[in-house]
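Researcher: Checking consistency across runs. Here is Dynein axonemal intermediate chain 3 again:
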Amino acid sequence: MVLTSATQELFGCLADEDVTGESPYKLLKKDDIIQDIKTRAAVSDFSPVKQIVLDYPEDELLLVYDRDFTYEQCFYLVLTPEAKDRILNPPEPETSQVLENVVNKTPEPKEWISLGSELEIDEESIKETREKLWYKFSRVRRKFGVPVCFSDRNTADAKDGYLECASYQDSRFSIKQMQRDCGMQAVPRLQSSSAQTQWYRNIFTQYVPRELSDEEKENILQFESLNNFCNSVTPRVLQALQQEEIMNGFFDDWKALGAAAEDGDWSGKVSEGLMLYQAFTDQKYTKDKKISSINWHPTIYGVLAVALTEQKEERTKDSTTFVVTPSVILFYSFSDPSIPQLLLECPDDIFAFEFCPSDPNIIVGGCINGQVVLWDISAHVTHLLGTQPGSKKVSVKNKTPVVRYCAVSALESRHKAPITDVQWLPPTFEVTRSGLPVENKYNISVQVVTCSPDCTIMFWDLRMQRLLSHSATDRKQSVDQKTQMTPYSVPDTFKHLDRTWKPLFRVLQGLRVHYKTHSKVIPDYSQLRVPSAKTATILEDVNTKLYIGTEVKIPTNKINNIKQCAKPLHCFNIHHWLVNTVQRSPFYKDIILTTGGWNFAIWKEGVMDGPIVLSPSSEQVCTSGCWSLSRPAVFFIGKDDGSIEVWNLMEKTSEPAQVHAHITNAKITCIKPWTASSKQHFLTVTDDIGMVRVLEIPKVLYVPTRNEVRQSNHLSCTHFKEYYCCLFTYYYVKRNNNVLGEGCKQNPALQHIYCIDTKPVHI
C-alpha cells in the first residue's frame, strides 16, 4: 500500500519515526479505517481495500512498514488473523539437542532427487545429431599390390589438377557464441583511445619492460664521457630549478594584461571560466533534501524555481529525531536571495515541473507517487514583480506566500512509479485518444506528456471533457467538500480536473522525453472544451517519434512512434547506467544530446546506426547535461564529483575545452542555462544538498565566432558527420598544406569522430 504523509500522520505511522526498520508493526483499529473511508471517500488510501476491511473478523488490523520495499511499496496490510499472529508471534526455532550414546552408523545413500542439473549436463555433452555418411572405396583387382611411384608435376598441365579448400562464411546458418575465454590483466588506470581503423578480432598483448643488468649499469657509470656530461650539465639544471622556484618562466604576461580581449576591451584580465554570480539556499526547506528540477521564470527577470525531494541515503541509527518537512517548490529572486519569494505546496515530492509556454502562470509538475499536479500563480505575480530592481516592495512582513495546487490527477489513474519528466506539447497540434496528431484550433498548449520508470508515457488534456463521469450534483458536493477542507483560497482554473483527472492516451515503454514549445497567447483554461475527434484535422507532417532513455542496463536509447507503440523502432545500448538527460539542440531540432553513466552521446535523427559523437568513458559519472543557448557547438556536462565540463566541438572532440572542478562539494543534479540579456548569460547548477548556484558564463563561451555562425548555417542543410569531417580536415589542410589522408592521421581531433562516412568529402 502507498500511504501519503497525511494518512501516516493521521494514523500515527510516520515512516522512520512511529514505525522503523527495527519496530515496523502498527495495529490499526478497524473502526478508524472505516471512518476514514467514509470521511475521505475515494481520496482515502484504504478505499481499494474497503471490502476486505469490512469482512475482517477482528477489531485491529496489522500494518507493517516495509522499509526494504520487499513488496514494492513502503507499507503492507495483513489481511487475515492467522497471518497477523504468525508475524507478531513467530515460531521459536528448534533447538538442537545433544544426544548421548549415539551409535555411529554407516551413512546410507539417499534417493536421488532431480533439481534440473541433469539438463545442464545434457546440454554440455556432445551428441551426434546427423546421420553418419557411408563411403565405399574400390579399385580394379589387378592393381592390388602394384608399386606406387610419386613425382612432381605442374598444376597447370592438367585440368582440375589443384583444388583449394579455403574457409568461407556460410550464409545459410550462423553459430551463436555462448561463451568466450579471454585472458585479462589488471591495470592501475583506464585509458580509452580510438582510431579510424576497421575492427576484425580481439587481440590481447602482454609485454615486460627491457632493463639493463647490474653489470651493464656498472660499465656505463664508469664511462668518462658520462661523468664529463653530468659535471657540465648539473650547474645549469640547478640554476633553472632555482629560477622556477622564484618565478614561472612560462607565464604569459601579455595575455595577463588583457591583450586577448576582443573588440578593444581593456577593462582588465578577461575571465575565460565560469564565475559564481549568486547562490541560494534555505535551511528550513532544503535541509536533508536534494534539488531534482529547476526552471527560470519565462518572463520575470532573475526569478527561478526549484523542486526538492528527499535524499535516498539512509539516516544514521544514532539519530533519534526526524522532522518531516513539507513538499514544496521554492521561488528565488536575485533581489532577495536570503529567503524564498514564493512556495508552491505539493501533495508529494516533485521530480520534474515546467512552466506553461502559453501562460507562464500555469505550472505542471510530476510527483514521486505518480500523480500530476497543476498550479496557478496568477494572484502572486504582483509579489514576484515586486522583487524586481527599481520596483516597490510588496508589504509582506517576513512571511513567504504559499500557493496550494489547483488540481491533482486521480489516484487510481496515476503512474505506478515516480514521474521523471514532464513536458508541454507544442501549441501547433494535439493528440487524440487514439494517439493521432491533429490540428490544435486554440493555438495554445492544452496537453501535457509525462513519463515514468513504470514504462509508460501518458498524455493529459487540461480542458473539460464533453462527457463527465460524475453528475452535476456529485461534482457540486465534491467541490463544496473540498472548499471546506481548504484552509486558504484556491483558484478554480482547473476545478473540473481536481482528483478526477485521467490520462487521455498512454504509450508503453517510456522514461524521459523532450519537447520545445513557445506561445504568447494567454488562455483561459476553465472555458476550454475538448473538441470532437470527428471534426479534428489529422496532421500528416507531424513527427511522432519519441527519444526515450531508460534507467537499467538494457538498450538505453529507444525511438518510439506514438502511432505504433507496441515495440521501439530502434534500441541502442550506449550508456552503461541510467539516462538522465535527453535534450534537443536549440539550433538544430534533429540533433539530440543524451547523458548517462560515464559518457555522453550526440544523435541525429535519420542516422540510425548509432550516435554521431560518442565521448570516451570518464572516471566520474555524468549526472546532467545541457546545450548552450547562444553557441551551437558548445554544451555543458555535470559530474557526480561536483565538477562541470565545457565542451566545444569547434575546438576539440576528444576532451573538454574547460573543466571546472569543485563547483560544489556534492553531486550535481541539474544544470540549466538562462539568457538575461545579450551581454549577460548564466548557468544554473544545483546539487543534492539543496544548494543553487548561478554561474556567469564568460564572453568567450557565449559569443559565437564568425566562422561558427557561417558554418552553423551550413550545418542545417548538410549531413552532420560530413560537416565535422570536412571542417576539421579543412582546418588542418589549410594550416599544414597537407592532403586529406595525412590530415586524418595526424590531426588528433579527427581521431575521435566515431561515425565518419568513408566516401570522399568535397572541400
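Researcher: Does this match what you'd expect to see?
Model: One thing to look at in this run: The first strand starts at residue 25 and ends at 29.
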